[in-house]
Write a structure and sequence with these properties.
The protein has 293 residues and is α/β, with parallel strands linked by helices. It has helices at residues 32-45, 57-60, 63-66, 79-85, 90-103, 114-120, 138-145, 160-170, 195-202, 218-225, 252-269, 281-287, and strands at 4-7, 10-13, 19-25, 49-54, 69-72, 75-78, 106-111, 128-130, 151-154, 175-179, 207-212, 230-234. The protein has one domain: Aldolase class I (TIM Barrel, Alpha-Beta Barrel), CATH 3.20.20.
Length: 293
Amino acid sequence: MAREIRLGGRLVGDRHPVFVIAEIGINHNGEIQTAKQMIDAAVDAGVDAVKFQKRTPELATPASQQDQMRETPWGYIPYLEYRRRVEFGAVEYREIAAHCAERGIMWLVSVWDEPSVDFMEGFETPAYKIPSAALTDHQLLRHAGATGKPLILSTGMSTMKQIQRAVQVVGKAPLMLMHCTSTYPCEPDELNLRMIETLRNEFPAVVVGYSGHEVGLVPSAVAVSLGARLVERHLTLDRAMWGSDQAASVEPPGFERLVKYIRVTEASLGDGVKRVYDSEGPSMRRLRRTNDE
């Protein structure tokens, strides 16, 4: 059985190029022009898709946090009001869809609740991302899976038992699992990249990817060497911008390097079959004293 999944017109899996997503998330801070600039930066970096986040603030924000006050660019306001300020609606998403079509890049979203799934059904996105925070929301998993679109499920702050249960709940819906650690930014000793191999062994029919929240680029390339077939990193125009995800994000020049590192890594892995390359011929003729067939 092929370990692959279709995202729009692309196949993602072991026999296909690594699929790279620039996670814009809410790093746009509610500004559609900033979002468009980030889409442009992602296109210039050579990524395969950009991703946003869709929430119903009243449902996705825990009741205990809704009235907590927070310093924001809009002043000292309740946390729920902040969540509303950074949420895009139908007008903005139509602009996003048009801009992505114009730039020729795929786009998708993380859905945090069932009304957000229903809302996004009005747009032709190729899949739904389920954030780590919702991995145990089995009703959301079933609701998103019922659309028939592939699900990309992040596994941060989850036990293996919870992951196994989520996979069971998803059932036969096309599924990709993303290893990640939900710390922003994440220290190297908590990245636990070998979990990519663990997930591949535990779920042999499922495509496994990596959602990175670390500072730097090297671990994301290492993730590819361990079998990640999709890599997702947060994009920002400037890590000094206001917002909780900015510090764990990659600026445009870094994203260009990241894509290059990933392409070099996948090209370097080869197929594991030992062979003598034609390029080795001059060295072999110059340096080898004996020839043993």
